[in-house]
Amino acid sequence: MSTIEEAPAKHVGQAIRRKEDPRLITGRAKYIDDIVVHGLLHMAVVRSPEAHARIVSIDGSEALGMPGIKAVYTGEDMSDLLAPLPMAWAPPGVEVKTPERWPLARGTVNHVGDAVAMVIGENKHVVVDAAQAVRVEYEPLPVVVDVEEALKDEVLVHESLGTNKVHEWSMGGGDIEQAIADADVVVEQRIVNHRTSGAAIEPRGVIAEYRHGYLTVWSSTQVPHLLRLFYAVQMGIAEDHVRVIAPEVGGGFGGKLQVCAEETLCAWAAKQLAMPVKWIETRSEAMAVSHHGRDQVDYVRMAAKSDGTITAFHAKIIQDCGAYFGLLTPMIPELGAFVMTGCYAIANVQTDITGVLTNKYITDAIRGAGRPEMTHMLEVTIDLLAEKLGMDPLELRRKNFIAPEDFPYTTPYGVTYDSGNYAAALDRALEMLDLDAFRAEQAHLREQGIYRGVGFSTYTEICGLAPSRAVGPKGFGLGIGLYESALVRVHPTGTVTVFTGASPHGQGHETGFAQIVADRLGVDPADVEVIHGDTATGPMGLGTYGSRSLAIGGVAAAHAAEKLAEKCRQIVAFNLEADVSDIEVGSGKFQLVGDPDQGMTLGEVAGCAYIDASGMPEGMELGLEQTLIYDPTNFVFPFGTHICVVDVDPNTGKVEVVRWVAVDDCGPAINPMLIDGQVHGGVAHGIGQALYEQVVYDDRGQLVTGTFMDYALPTAAEIPSFELDRTETKSPSNSLGVKGIGEAGTIASTPAIVNAVIDALRHEGVTYIDMPLTSLRVWEALEEARGRGDGPSATEQGADLPPQGEGSAGSGPTTPEGGAA
Amino acid sequence: MTVNGQPVEAEVEPRLLLVHYLRDELGLTGTHVGCDTSNCGACTCHLDGESVKSCTVLTVQADGAEITTIEGMIGDDGELHPLQEGFWAEHGLQCGYCTPGMIMAAADLIARHGPGPISEEDVRKGLEGNLCRCTGYHNIVKAVQAAAEAMGKVAA
């Protein structure tokens, strides 16, 4: 591809205010629930109160007789669907047992909240009333909630599968057992990475309208194009007759990277009734049936030589999938496995993953998706190893860092890291922290009974999801390859519209992409409009998740703009009777090198392309627009150091985060303000998981954390101010040199918190505590370490809530009982 | 009652929540709904000058009251309220869903605070009733302090 040499970075790199904001701060934005379509009907879903039961009968007659009710449908009514809800991962050579999952249950319900019927009516109030009048008789079946219990196959979630163990996946590099046998020091730990909720403040929502064979769906989604593709498959509607629009989307965090049952229900009902149908999720529904994240039990072993050389790292991961699969459920741990060795050169590595069904809701991608879990187990285990070696945890990290000169670096798994300078990020973070001063302060505070601790996390991660061949059907096994599109259109007056296949929900694409394109076409970002989230406008796109938008979609926009700039230069050269190589992009125009008075604005160039063809070189195609699909050659690997300082109250176990220092490296900044914002939110998400948030089911499979009253999302009062800086190491994977940053904060943060709490309590003999580090858990760990504990007691959520939440609240390794090998 | 200075009159079902009246009857969709339990604060608006969570106020309770929503914060001349300006300048929002509620709660926080400086802790404690999942609150705090300063209150 011909590109202009180096676009002058006039707007790229600047902390430009967001173009999105004026509509958002004035209440003028249009989210899904703000959309009204003429003749709109509303849907409510009848959901199972049972975690596992056979459906004996469903009687909707009373509901149907209520004023304003148009229809009651059950799973049997929807037999014309051509496919169940999708799971899009079929790795070559790996058996994945996929339970069929229909939008309305057929025969059995398998988790609390499983949809059994839908009620359609004239307004949102009557359908809620009518849904309560639908009589469903259930015959309860045995329930299995704990993932390691489920592995025993004594209670089956789906009889038809014959087992709860739905997939096994192993990856090895080197010889793990030999390395462990040869090691001087080995540490083992059982680590529970508990179930969480994405908890976007805007719940999900859908409107579907079906007119004369054409389906239009508005959905609060991260993936409009994937939805369109799926509607075509599931409902047998030609893809060109389906339009999916993602309006303003109020946060996603992976929770809207899903093909949801309710989306199909609305579309199907709209077709049946020839009327538009709307569904807006309540928060209680969101807690129950917007997919959850994390939920793994991990058994790790790490081995080292006495000089601190880490020789082996082994993780057995037992993944709690829930009762079915979502779009990507079984592949989530695998995504983490690709960066299992983190920032370190570890020669022998092994990951063994077992996917298990339980009578809980599905888990799937939530901010970080597999990488936070992997980073957590790696960074927490390194601290355990450092203690056993009697070595400073930072010295241990430095000793094993992949050196800057070793990039590109290929891990034992064959993953090639693009670029990195881990020590530089750590050095900068330590400079900001002032570790010596911290240790002096820590000692001083301890004399006063205040337990202060510091924790480190030096991370790298894999993101920028693409390249298509690597992740697609014959590669990693996704049902569709990942790439991204851009269409850059210059209008006759010289303003620009960029259509991107990425589908943002708060990230700021309209600003960042405008900055990129503006510099390449010599215009102001104010004159560049970015359109997203509508399958009827731009080319095929893959959406926004996996920190992919900038590194894939942004680069697509850059390349498209560069191609257009090349055409512009030819047009200008023709009109100035100059050589193309003498035309450069200047400020506000394309101009002659050395004589910037001679030039043409983009509007003048567009005038030639659209209005007066006499200004066009002979044979050149009229018009000024460029469509481009960008498929990179590799992933990108952002990295950095996060440092957390906590105070722990030894009397109550209360943990308070008092400082957060982070140095992240995502390559050159397009808009540093947006990067900082992503890191702030990402870290807050990690603090939430580490200290407060947990989705809890009781042993009967009842959801205990069903609202924001019970699910502790952190508020402003629990989150510190952040001290951020960046280093800039270019990625050779793309021409902008950029890497993703949307998930980095969440990936990096949880181990920094756990390590900080352990640092605060180590002198009392506490060596490990599972998240979430609630006051009770920390207090119990302290009591046990002091020899006063009675062993692990019930979690604070209630004595009958053991399963995924109850980790080893004390210290020391345990061994798997469930036969996960 | 009046909504953003305009008199409105209606007969409503006793169970109709104020947020639904504002959104569904008046089309003022800047006030959002994010939970069922009055935790998230996305529905915050002003009732007689004080912030309320409009998901926990029955419309009939607002009989005769003066209601202000996010749509009413902008000046007659189209000038942004200092809080709107602050959130924009400080990148105090990402997806924007919590933002109207945050701004309405922050306006009440500043008004109630009196003339003294508003500290970071004041803002953090004062906004405990409003949840944001995107920003980590860091820039929201800065935005509120910047607005307080612009409104003549010295930030601490």
How is this fold's topology laid out?
The complex is a heterodimer of chains A (821) and B (156).
Chain A: H1 21-25, E1 41-47, E2 53-59, H2 61-64, E3 69-74, E4 108-109, E5 115-121, H3 124-132, E6 135-140, H4 147-150, E7 165-173, H5 176-182, E8 185-197, E9 205-211, E10 214-219, H6 224-235, E11 242-245, H7 261-273, E12 277-280, H8 283-289, E13 292-304, E14 310-322, H9 332-337, E15 348-357, H10 371-389, H11 393-400, E16 409-410, E17 416-417, H12 422-433, H13 435-447, E18 451-460, H14 468-471, E19 484-490, E20 496-500, H15 509-521, E21 528-532, H16 549-576, E22 583-585, E23 590-592, E24 595-600, H17 602-610, E25 625-630, E26 639-648, E27 655-665, H18 672-692, E28 723-726, H19 744-761, H20 775-785
Parallel strand pairs in A: 1-12, 10-11, 14-15, 20-21, 27-28
Antiparallel strand pairs in A: 1-5, 2-4, 2-6, 3-5, 7-15, 8-13, 9-10, 9-12, 13-14, 16-17, 18-26, 19-20, 19-25, 22-23, 23-24, 26-27
Chain B: E1 2-3, E2 6-7, H1 18-25, E3 44-47, E4 50-53, E5 66-68, H2 82-89, H3 99-113, H4 120-126, H5 138-150
Parallel strand pairs in B: 1-5
Antiparallel strand pairs in B: 1-2, 3-4, 3-5
Descriptive account of the structure:
The complex is a heterodimer of chains A (about 800) and B (about 160). Chain A contains 20 helices and 28 strands. With about 800 residues, chain A is of the alpha+beta class. In chain A, strands 3-5-1-12-9-10-11 form a 7-stranded mixed beta sheet, sandwiched between helices. In chain A, strands 7-15-14-13-8 form a 5-stranded mixed beta sheet. In chain A, helix 10 runs parallel beside helix 19, helix 15 packs parallel to helix 16 and helix 18 crosses helix 19. The radius of gyration of chain A is 28 Å and the shape is globular. The N and C termini of chain B lie far apart (about 40 Å). The model of chain B has no long low-confidence stretch (mean pLDDT about 95). With about 160 residues, chain B is α+β, with helices and mostly antiparallel strands. In chain B, helix 2 packs across helix 5. The interface between A and B is large, with 55 and 53 residues.
